[in-house]
Write a structure and sequence with these properties.
By secondary structure, this protein is mainly α. Helices cover 54% and strands 0% of the residues. Helix 1 (3-16) packs antiparallel against helix 2 (22-30). The structure holds zinc ion. Residues 32-33, 53, 88, 92 line the site of zinc ion.
Length: 168
């Protein structure tokens, strides 16, 4: 899923659940893709969906966020960020067109290297060559955008209803 797709899912979830910190769940929704910082390194393909797509990374980031949050918001910030990041991990575990280092995510890394994927929405014929060939990978992402479209639409409707956009 693209970052916009992850942000849409986070926004919809944040608007649907009471007590959620919207900024924290939005950050949580994209924080696992922090590994894209290493995109231009030769070894990126080996670490993508591994070093920041595991339960320990998101627990650590959630604790760090709750630690720096202001008093009274610590629990909501930590939980919201964890929820956003958990949704990200679940989505990535079900939508993988780059199984070069295993299908899904390395949920228990660094304890276990095995990739976790309850199912993959993409057929094997859509498997890409990995991010060493970015243009092919981006082209393969296009059909996946159809899965994201309903989330874009719903997030857009919610934004509209909240009058966050289209204000007079
Ligand atoms: Zn991801």
């Amino acid at each position: 899923m693209t970052p916009i797709g992850h942000l849409s899912v986070s926004y919809i979830s944040g608007r649907s659940i009471r007590g959620i910190s919207l900024p924290a769940i939005m950050i949580g929704g994209i924080v696992p893709d922090f590994d894209f910082l290493f995109f231009f390194f030769e070894w990126f393909n080996q670490v993508h969906r591994v070093i920041s797509h595991n339960i320990f990374f998101i627990i650590l980031v959630s604790f760090a966020a709750s630690f720096v949050a202001k008093a009274g918001a610590k629990k909501a910030v930590g939980f919201s960020l964890f929820l956003g990041a958990s949704l990200h991990l679940f989505i990535d575990s079900c939508m993988d067109i780059n199984p070069t280092n295993g299908t899904g995510i390395a949920l228990l890394w660094p304890l276990v290297d095995t990739s976790f994927s309850p199912f993959n929405l993409f057929h094997d014929s859509m498997n890409g060559p990995g991010w060493t060939e970015p243009l092919k990978m981006l082209r393969l992402m296009i059909p996946g955008l159809l899965y994201e479209l309903p989330f874009y639409v719903l997030a857009f409707i919610l934004l509209w209803k909240e009058k966050i956009i289209f204000q007079d």
